[in-house]
Structure formats: structure tokens, C-alpha cells
Amino acid sequence: MVDLRPLRWIWMDGRLVPWNDARVHVLTHGLHYGYAVFEGIRCHRTDRGSAVFRLDEHLVRFLDSARVYRMKMPFDVLTLRQATVELIRANETPEAYLRPIAFSGYGQMGLDPTQSPTQVAIGMWEWGAYLGAAGVERGVRATVSSWVRVDSRSLPPQAKCAANYANSALAKMEAVSGGYDEAILLNSQGMVAEGPGENLFRVKNGVVSTPPASSGILRGVTRDTVIRFVADERIEFRRNDFSREELFTSDELFYTGTAAGITPIREVDGRPIGTGAYPVTKRLQLRYEDAIHGRNPAYASWLTAVP
Ligand SMILES: Cc1ncc(COP(=O)(O)O)c(C=O)c1O
Question: Quick check: 115 pLDDT over 90?
Fold first, then answer.
């Protein structure tokens, strides 16, 4: 969690508006029915100024989420890319978390959202590692949630819809009130899916694995990034389902996400994971830090410069 510290501008419906004027009516449709899709993106300092990491992949997923929900999106990727860059420049904040959101606006009520106007905004704020800098360094304590991850027969997990995050919040609250840092959600088949806002990776006998998209997860941009890193490190990789007990017997486990970065898990439900040394996770973390800060030319095409 982070206390919001206001910056100067929010991009809203096609223009920059002062932070305090970026408001909606209390009868806004999306507020009542969870009919909103959003993204989480980061920009970071590089030697050549601020750069947004994998901006286009996030924006494409944003538009795809809207398509799943038949939401009419008034802006294309090019416009949203320009808006993002304009916003970072205007706020003069080179390192931040960015939050594009599209939602059914004010004007209609009732469950069919297709008649409501779509409103689109991009906000940004300063946000350190979601599970804490100490968590990134030393690992976090996780618990397997009693809540089952949403699945594509109810709320499609591959669309980043606000409604999915009610499920995430139930799992997160349960974890925190039980004294843990984060939850791990199983899918309706009882196999490992993901965290409330992160994907999950396992290392066992030198092989890195992660649940496939069909396990009911958000296809994370960081997950995709890590899969590329694993290939570049010449580590064996598999996309396969794994069970709760395979969490306990892992040599290493880690979360990935734009908010969380690459965060090791040092314990699951009282069982220490591996030796606590995370050699593979550490290699991937180093590669990630270099990529997002523009220090590895192999990943330069993932950066959108903010001139
Ligand atoms: C449920 C869920 N899974 C996984 C992720 C990780 O996705 P990404 O790496 O694109 O941030 C997120 C974050 O957006 C998420 O909310």
C-alpha cells in the first residue's frame, strides 16, 4: 500500500487536468458494477532520462481487456502512448507507477453497460516495490488462500477488469490478517494460479516453471519478460501446472509483476522455501534491474523514452 502524494496532472478523456479536478460523479456506472479495465505500468530513470517499460504491451493488453468486456474504447494505442509520455513530462516525475483506467461513465444505470459512455484516464504516482524493498532483498512470507482465483467461466482472468480485484482483495486481506505478506491463489482445479496482483514462478532442480495461461492467470508483462530472461540465461524452462505441495518442495519461488518487480518468496504456510539463498531469482532480478534502467542494450526495444 502507498499513501497517494498528489502530482500536478492527470490525463483524462483526452487532455491533462489538474490532479484535484480529475473527478467523477458518484453515480458513475463503473463505480457501481466494477465495469472498469485498467493497467499498471512503470517508468524508470535511465542514463538518458525517464523511460517507460514495455508500454505498448501494456496498452495492447488494456485494449484487449476492453474488447473482452465490449467496452467502446475511444482512444487507440498511439494516442494512449502519446498521452502517457505527455503526462510523465508534465509531472516531471521520472520514476513512477502509471495507471491507465477505462470505465463506464455517468449517464446510464442498470447492468448492461454498453450504452454508457467510456471514460479513460491515466494517473501516476510514486510507488516503491509493492511488497517492500526488504521483500525484494530477503523474500516475503506467503500463504495459500482459502479463496479460489476467478476463472474464465466467471470473470475472465486474462482481462484486467476491476471486478477481478475484489477476489484479489479477499485473498490479500486474509493473508495480511493471518500475519503473512502475500497470498497465493489456487484455481478451481486446485492447482497454483497466481498471486492477487502477481504471477508466480518456481525453481526446482535448475528448471524454472510457471503456470500456463490456461491455469487462469493474468498474462503478466513481467512474466513474459522473465521467460525471455530465462532463455537468455540458458536456463531450462517449462510452462506447467503445479500443485500446492510442489510449492513447499520448491528450491526457489518468486512473484513477478509491474508493481512487485521480482520478489522472492521465502516461506509458504510456515515451510521455508529452499535454502533461502535464491541464486536463480537473484540472476533474474539483476537482469530485470538492468533492463528497466536501460543498462542492457539487448532489451532497449522495451523502453519508450520520455524526451
Ligand atoms: C492478477 C495479476 N496477476 C499478475 C500480474 C502481473 O502482471 P504484470 O507483470 O503485467 O504487471 C498482475 C499485475 O498487473 C495482476 O494484477
Answer: no
Å from CA of 107 to ligand 1 middle: 31
Annotated domain spans of the chain: 9-125, 133-292
Give the tens place of pLDDT for each residue, 86-108: 999 999 999 999 999 999 999 99
Superfamily of structural domain 133-292: D-amino Acid Aminotransferase, subunit A, domain 2 (3.20.10.10)
Whether 167 lines ligand 1, by a CB cut-off of 6 Å, is no
| Nearest CA-CA partner of 306 in 58, 59, 49, 125 | 49
Compute, in angstroms, the gap from residue 198 CA to the centroid of ligand 1: 5
pTM: 0.97
Task: State if residue 84 touches ligand 1 by the CB under 6 angstroms criterion.
Answer: no
Closest CA to 158 of 196, 200, 214, 104: 214
| pLDDT tens digits for range 287-305 | 999 999 999 999 999 999 9
Please tell me the CATH code under which domain 9-125 is placed: 3.30.470.10
What is the C-alpha separation between 160 and 129, in angstroms, rounded? 20
